[in-house]
Design a protein that fits this description.
The complex is a heterodimer. Helix content of chain A is 71%, strand content 0%. In chain A, helix 3 runs antiparallel to helix 4, helix 4 runs antiparallel to helix 5 and helix 5 packs antiparallel against helix 7. The longest helix of chain A has 32 residues. Chain A is globular. The two termini of chain A are 35 Å apart. In chain B, helix 3 runs parallel beside helix 7, helix 4 packs antiparallel against helix 5 and helix 5 packs antiparallel against helix 6. Chain B is built from eight helices and no strands. By secondary structure, chain B is mostly helical. The chains are: A mainly alpha, B mainly alpha. At the A-B interface, helix 7 and helix 11 of A face helix 1 and helix 4 of B.
Chain lengths: 299, 224
């Protein structure tokens, strides 16, 4: 089973940017366009990696550390997540807390790097990012608590391995809440628009305006890895009760991941962004959904 | 299984009522709650179905799911009230209040010595619906929302009756339904009349006299 975990990790590291091109192709389909080529995210990464770095004289080591720490923390977190019943590379009781805090560490350094530039726009983006993730994090942790109570397991691997179909209604709630958190944490519509280039409305994109070359490549790659990571948690909820074979779970899981990317594309094409002041209520709704799921599970 | 699912839908409807910002959507949610409540006796009952349970289910579907929402929508249309909810407690806080009350209901449900019911979640959800209704009556400004809160409150009582009283005289249940219908009817008429009365005594309107006094009430004036 450890071999399967390694395969999953390798697939995740290689195929994560492909999720973005699936989303872009879906959006292009809805817009009646052809869209960028399938390998465009990889081309952009290699292009950026070949460029030089321009760093402002007013920045410190924090600015350099930001992208590196965020890639490292996200990749490390990826070792902790199982895909359906495919176990995680590392599993121990309470590892979901470490997962949440590794994501928190990555975010902390991205935000610090943005603040380090001293730009007013980046400070604004950093403030928004922190506000939204502070609201999304309780929902994520509570979702883990619901799954832990439902399965009586304490590691992510055990938790997804023991997930049964009898959880029924609670699992539906957890899935919807995790979808909301997935969209918010990955800065997709309706929370943030990854295509926007108006500083006043941006959240994630505004924080990385001053990064260039390999730094920017690392940030984009970390964002792709984070999408894969949160995606595995999301699709594990419906996947693991139905598929109990490791190999089938890996295969179906990767397929489901791209189906999720299509779903994100459909959501992005069919909904508008929420007003900034409405976002807390949206994330609060996710939190409330998980709380109700907890109520149902414990009831 | 189906009972649990229905109860969960009721909880979600309650939360939507607490967090929703549009009056029309809230009325639809209350109607949805009525439909779920109407179907609930069928999921609790054992086969073959008792004809009086079917009758009760049909009646509550008809009254809660169709009759009352139609009345409320009519009141909304004709009294030209503001279609946005005007909360005294903000919507986010209302949602958090909902969570706190949900926990409280769970605790209450586990402490009360109740006879066995169809589902362990039954009593907590009934309490939660009651509290939601009460909160909507207290924490919203418009008269129409207060009627809605009263409706939700009654939904909670009805849920309690369905889950616990295996052999309540069904005439009592039907009586409650009728009471409610008459109550909302009276409130609807009162609202309508208050609206008309306010039009007539509005001083701005009195200043300008016309031969043709057919004027629609303006949407800006207070209606309560």
């Amino acid at each position: 089973m450890q071999a399967l975990a390694l395969v999953h990790l390798a697939v995740a590291l290689l195929a994560a940017p492909l999720l973005l091109s699936v989303i872009n192709k879906t959006k292009a389909f809805f817009g009646g366009r052809q869209g960028p080529p399938w390998l465009q995210p990889y081309r952009e990464l290699t292009k950026l990696l070949h460029k030089g770095v321009a760093r402002s004289r007013s920045t410190s080591w924090v600015f350099v550390a930001g992208p590196i720490v965020s890639v490292a923390a996200t990749a490390l977190a990826l070792c902790l997540v199982p895909l359906g019943v495919v176990p995680a590379l590392v599993a121990f009781p309470g590892d979901f807390v470490l997962l949440a805090y590794l994501l928190g560490l990555a975010r902390f350094f991205t935000v610090s790097a943005a603040l380090d530039t001293g730009s007013a726009f980046e400070g604004m983006g950093a403030s928004r990012e922190v506000q939204l993730s502070a609201l999304a994090e309780p929902g994520l942790l509570l979702a883990f608590v619901v799954l832990a109570v439902a399965t009586q397991a304490l590691s992510l691997t055990g938790l997804f391995a023991r997930l049964g179909t009898d959880g029924g209604p609670a699992l539906v709630l957890v899935f919807v809440a995790l979808l909301v958190i997935f969209l918010s944490e990955n800065s997709r519509i309706p929370v943030d628009d990854p295509n926007t280039h108006l500083e006043l409305t941006m959240i994630h994109e505004v924080m990385i305006l001053d990064h260039s070359g390999p730094d920017l490549a690392l940030i984009h790659y970390a964002a792709a890895l984070k999408m894969w990571l949160l995606g595995t948690l999301l699709i594990g909820v419906p996947l693991s009760p139905w598929v109990s074979d490791g190999f089938a779970s890996l295969l179906l899981g990767v397929l489901a991941m791209f189906a999720l990317a299509v779903l994100v594309g459909v959501i992005e094409s069919s909904t508008a962004r929420l007003r900034l002041t409405r976002l807390p209520q949206w994330l609060l709704a996710a939190f409330v959904l998980t709380a109700v799921a907890l109520f149902v599970v414990m009831g | 299984m189906w009972t649990e699912f229905a109860l969960m839908l009721l909880v979600l409807a309650n939360l939507r009522l607490l967090g929703g910002s549009r009056l029309l959507a809230c009325i639809s949610t209350a109607a949805f709650q009525g439909v779920v409540l109407g179907l609930l006796p069928l999921t609790v009952a054992s086969w073959p179905l008792d004809p009086r349970i079917v009758l009760l289910s049909l009646l509550s579907l008809l009254i809660k799911g169709w009759g009352l929402p139609v009345l409320l929508r009519k009141a909304l249309r004709e009294t030209s009230v503001n279609r946005e909810i005007q909360p005294i407690v903000s919507l986010n806080l209302s949602l958090l209040f909902g969570l706190a009350v949900l926990a409280l209901s769970g605790w209450l449900g586990s402490r009360l010595p109740l006879p066995t019911s169809a589902s362990a979640l039954g009593a907590p959800v009934a309490f939660f619906t009651l509290f939601t209704g009460l909160f909507l009556v207290v924490a919203r400004r418009q008269a129409l929302t207060q009627v809605l809160g009263y409706l939700v409150l009654e939904n909670g009582i009805f849920l309690f009756g369905v889950l616990f009283a295996h052999s309540t005289p069904w005439i009592v249940e039907v009586g409650v339904l009728l009471d409610l219908l008459v109550g909302v009817f009276v409130m609807g008429i009162t609202l309508f009349h208050i609206n008309r009365a306010f039009d007539a005594i509005d001083s701005d309107r009195l200043a300008q006299l016309h031969d043709l006094a057919v004027q629609r009430p303006s949407p800006t004036e207070p209606t309560e």
